[in-house]
Design a protein that fits this description.
Layout lengths: L1 H32 L5 H23 L2 H20 L2 H11 L2 H6 L7 H28 L7 H28 L3 H17 L12 H9 L1 H15 L4 H28 L1
């Protein structure tokens, strides 16, 4: 009896995984046939990296070369935070167009469409990272600790932003239009990135703003990226980022799944 139950459980898990990766493939194919959906992770990081570097580099750091260690992690993290809305936006669009009615009539795991969206988003984060750092490389930025540590910094940053995407997925279920998610994402991105050390040294800020920037989670994410990529140090900021990310998932993943099962 126990052997039979174990077999059924393994079969169910395998079925859920199979259905999920079918949904991942579906989402990636949609992106392939609608490349304009990648504008925010391809064109925008290139644009902001070049404009911010040459427009503010001299004023903030004396020249572009000295500004690159500040702006490259800042633009990367801003781009990734902005990209966290993709799953919620696509989820809302699928609900509005009745796609989920079709999914519910199919013999697939109920959680597969949601899981597929969140997993396929990782590809977007990788693309955003490539274009952000690639532009930084072309301008002259280099990771002082080497490319191995750079990979570690990128994985940590992508993981943190993927955890945040659970919040936007929850919002995608609750709101009535995809436009609302874009507005929420834009506001969140602007507040978190500009009220941090993503674009300017935190010491240049006035006292009250410095306090806000110090407790801003993006500041800790930027600090952890710089420490890992430039010094090969996986320090307190990195561990704080991991802890905060896991707390977000622990809180919002169950809520998002519960709302998904109830409303979709």
């Amino acid at each position: 009896m126990e052997i039979t139950q174990s077999y059924v459980k393994k079969k169910n898990i395998k079925s859920v995984l199979s259905d999920t990766f079918v949904m991942v493939k579906r989402d990636l194919l949609k992106t392939k046939h609608n490349p304009d959906k990648l504008m925010d992770v391809t064109f925008m990081p290139i644009f902001f990296m070049i404009v911010f570097s040459y427009l503010f580099g001299g004023a903030i750091a004396g020249d572009v070369k000295n500004y690159l260690p500040i702006i490259v992690p800042g633009i990367l993290i801003q781009t990734l935070i902005s990209s966290t809305s993709a799953a919620g936006t696509q989820l809302r669009e699928d609900i509005e167009t009745g796609v989920f009615d079709r999914f519910n009539s199919l013999p697939i795991a109920r959680i597969a469409p949601l899981a597929g969206l969140l997993i396929s988003d990782i590809v977007r984060y990788v693309i955003a990272t490539f274009f952000s750092l690639g532009t930084g490389f072309l301008i002259g930025w280099r990771p002082e600790a080497g490319y191995g540590w750079l990979a570690v910094a990128c994985v940590l940053t992508i993981f943190a932003c993927w955890c945040v995407s659970w919040i936007l997925a929850m919002i995608g279920i609750l709101v009535k239009s995809a436009a609302t998610i874009s507005s929420v994402s834009m506001t969140l991105t602007m507040l978190l990135s500009f009220l941090s050390n993503a674009f300017v040294p935190i010491d240049t800020l006035p006292g009250w703003l410095k306090t806000i920037a110090t407790i801003n989670p993006v500041t800790h994410l930027v600090n952890s990226f710089k420490a890992i990529a430039n010094h090969g140090v996986f320090g307190a900021d990195a561990w704080l980022t991991i802890t905060a990310s896991l707390v977000i998932v622990a809180i919002f993943a169950p809520i998002t799944v519960a709302l998904y099962n109830k409303n979709v």
